[in-house]
Specification:
With 278 residues, the chain is α/β, with parallel strands linked by helices. It has eleven helices and eleven strands. The N and C termini lie far apart (58 Å).
């Protein structure tokens, strides 16, 4: 009888937890979009941000095509009748204030600046949507990817520079800086006077090239003026002295599950430029 009573109690707790989990969740941030689709049930997601479907900048464009999106207006969000909205400090302030006045539950997130903060963000989203176990599964996959991407013992860090459209780069103390360090690179952005996020002039790169340029992808189908720097002949002329590897800009800003692909791409770049056997 005691065993039956205990099982009933467990069943009641599970049922109560499931009932308490939000059933209509909206994300207004592209990085939160990625976490949400990895931890929530498909039917729990009422909408993602409009960035999620952009194949050039999103890592979940195919999944996002099967889900509603919003342009981040309060009217759109209200019409979807969410019981939870995930926002960031980059989400539209007017929308956030309107949702607050309407007593619609919102949760505000800050951008993670390192891997531990990113993992905690996953745990928080997973807990909010009642999917803690799924969150831990995602974290385990990230940790495994980071271990797999660790350079061989004794390998010297390779001086490298992130170089995206218009020379956009990332300095020390950012999440991508930590990912570079973890995968065997040394971020030398400070050599060009870059302290955080900024554009580094092409002339400085040519005058003092890194060992490896982790360059963005040039989109031949939709070329932009900012992309021209990635195709500059001066960069090609430096290639005997400066090796080049592709690091897509869609991996640059988000942590969460994106770290899995980031670790793999950086590891492959390191192996390619160092001659290391995969």
């Amino acid at each position: 009888m005691r065993a039956i009573a205990a099982l009933c109690c467990v069943s009641l707790l599970v049922s109560t937890s499931a009932e308490a989990a939000p059933r209509r969740v909206i994300s207004l941030n592209p990085c939160l979009d990625v976490i949400l689709v990895n931890v929530a049930d498909h039917e729990q997601i009422a909408a993602l941000s409009h960035y999620a479907r952009d194949k050039d900048t999103s890592t979940i464009a195919d999944i996002a095509a099967t889900l509603p999106i919003t342009q981040e207006s309060a009217e759109e969000v209200m019409a979807l009748e969410p019981d939870l909205v995930l926002t960031s400090r980059h989400s539209d302030l007017a929308t956030r204030n309107a949702l607050g006045r309407l007593k619609i539950r919102t949760e505000l997130f800050t951008e993670p600046q390192n891997v531990p903060e990113s993992l905690e963000g996953i745990r928080r989203v997973a807990a909010l949507v009642g999917q803690e176990a799924r969150g831990e599964e995602v974290i385990a996959r990230i940790e495994a990817a980071l271990i797999a991407a660790t350079p061989p013992v004794g390998a010297k860090p390779i001086p490298a520079l992130i170089f995206q459209s218009n020379g956009f780069t990332s300095g020390r103390g950012t999440l991508i800086d930590e990912m570079m360090t973890r995968t065997g690179f040394m971020n030398i952005a400070d050599r060009y006077g870059i302290k955080w996020w900024a554009n580094v002039p092409l002339e400085l790169v040519i005058a003092d090239p890194p060992a490896v340029l982790l360059a963005g992808e040039f989109r031949a189908s939709v070329p932009t003026w900012a992309d021209r720097v990635l195709r500059h002949p001066a960069l090609r002329a430096m290639e005997p002295k400066m090796k080049r590897a592709v690091f897509p800009d869609r991996l640059l800003f988000c942590g969460g599950p994106v770290l899995i692909k980031s670790a793999q791409v950086l590891m492959q770049a390191r192996q390619a430029v160092s001659g290391e056997m995969p």
